[in-house]
Each structure stands twice: as C-alpha cells, then as structure tokens.
Automatic annotation (TrEMBL):
O-UMP-tyrosine found at: 51
Keyword Nucleotide-binding: yes
Protein name (record): Nitrogen regulatory protein P-II
Protein family according to the UniProt entry: Belongs to the P(II) protein family.
Function: In nitrogen-limiting conditions, when the ratio of Gln to 2-ketoglutarate decreases, P-II is uridylylated to P-II-UMP. P-II-UMP allows the deadenylation of glutamine synthetase (GS), thus activating the enzyme. Conversely, in nitrogen excess P-II is deuridylated and promotes the adenylation of GS. P-II indirectly controls the transcription of the GS gene (glnA). P-II prevents NR-II-catalyzed conversion of NR-I to NR-I-phosphate, the transcriptional activator of glnA. When P-II is uridylylated to P-II-UMP, these events are reversed.
Matching Gene3D superfamilies: 3.30.70.120
Source organism per UniProt: Azorhizobium caulinodans (strain ATCC 43989 / DSM 5975 / JCM 20966 / LMG 6465 / NBRC 14845 / NCIMB 13405 / ORS 571)
C-alpha cells in the first residue's frame, strides 16, 4: 500500500478528481496549503499599495492505494494537473506500513 501525495494548483482540483474517479479511485483527502518552489511568489497591488506574496495557494491531495495502482494514479494526476507552466506542482509516493478502517476494523488493503 502507498500514499500518493500531490501538490497542485487549486483550479485543477475537479480535473484531478474526475481523472482519479475514472480509474477507480474513490477516496481522497484535500488540504489547502501555501508554499513556493521555483515560482518564488509574486507581487500584487491592493488599494494602491504593492506587496509581495511569498507563499502561493496550493492544494495537497492524498490518496491511499494498493501498490499495483500507484503508476496509474501518478499518471492520472500528472495528465490532469499539468498546465505546462511553472508551479504545476509535485507528486510524492510514500509507503504505508499499516491501515485500519475505524468503522469496521478492516486492516491493510481491505481498509482502503
């Protein structure tokens, strides 16, 4: 079992969710986060005053999947979240040692 964590642009969420649903992934967690990479933020003007926005709004998506589905999930997220511009995000894959569904007590792959 693995967790696929993706940092994406907020307006790409529906496309990513639709892509994941299309390959049979039905559960995901979304968190609003802020950060920067090569973009290094930008400047904005508010009421005539210019100020720097150092941390840009992003979404963090986490999906727990069986190990044999990781490649399909990564491919679906990459294809649906890509704009071709700087700041499209990153995908990280982590190993899950143990999982438990609280409601039923199912463990590991059955809990997904």
């Amino acid at each position: 079992m693995k967790i696929v964590m993706a940092i994406i642009k907020p307006f790409k969420l529906e496309e990513v969710r639709d892509a994941l649903t299309g390959i049979g992934v039905h559960g995901l967690t979304v968190t609003e986060v802020k950060g920067y990479g090569r973009q290094k933020g930008h400047t904005e003007i508010y009421r005539g005053a210019e100020y720097a926005v150092s941390f840009l709004p992003k979404l963090k998506i986490e999906v727990a999947v069986p190990s044999d589905q990781v490649a399909k999930v990564v491919e679906a997220i990459t294809a649906s979240a890509k704009t071709g511009q700087i700041g499209d995000g990153k995908i990280f894959v982590f190993q899950i040692d143990h999982a438990v569904r609280i409601r039923t007590g199912e463990t590991d792959a059955d809990a997904l």
